[in-house]
C-alpha cells in the first residue's frame, strides 16, 4: 500500500520592529499560484520547523528573523491547490529592508489596512486570525 501524507510547511508573519506600527512583510510569488503571500515554504527532510522558518525568511526576504512564538497550525486539505499541506505559522520580528529573493518576485511592507487583495493559499484567513490576536489577544480556535 502506498501512503500519501501531507507536506509540512511553515509560514512566518514577520513584524518589522524598526518601523512605526510594526508592519508586516509579504512576498509576491514568482511561481504559481501567483499573488501575495506570507513568506514561507516547505520543510526539508531532517529539518526542524523552526530552522525552516528562519531559512525561508532569509531566502525569500533577505532578513534574519527572531522567532517570537508559534502562532497556529493550518491544515485544511484545500489550502494549497498543488497538494495537501500543513502549515505551522510563526510570528517573528526583524529589522531592515526586505529584498525579494529565492522564489519571491517582489517583497513589500504592509500595514493591516493596505494588504493586497490577491493573497495566495489561505493567507487571508491567517492574517485575519493574526490581527484578531494582535488587537484582542484572541487566538484561533481548533
Query: Could you list the spans in which at least 5 consecutive residues all have pLDDT below 50?
Result: none
Q: What Rg is obtained from the alpha carbons, in whole angstroms?
A: 14 Å
Domains, number:
1
**Main sheet characteristics:** 4 strands, mixed
Percentage of residues in strands? 25-35%
Query: How do the strands of the widest beta sheet line up side by side?
Result: 4-1-6-5
State the CATH superfamily name. Answer: Nucleoside Triphosphate Pyrophosphohydrolase
SSE string, helices as H and strands as E: EEEEHEEEH
- CA(first)-CA(last) distance: 31 Å
> Which fold does the CATH topology refer to?
Nucleoside Triphosphate Pyrophosphohydrolase
Mean pLDDT, nearest integer?
96
What's the architecture, going by CATH?
Alpha-Beta Complex
Share of helix, binned: 10-25%
Highest CATH level, the class: Alpha Beta
- The outline comes out as globular
Number of strands: 7
Oligomer: single chain
Number of helices: 2
Look at the helices and sheets and give the structural class.
Answer: alpha+beta
Which terms summarize this structure?
2 helices, 3-stranded antiparallel beta sheet, alpha+beta, 142 residues, globular, 19% helix, 4-stranded mixed beta sheet
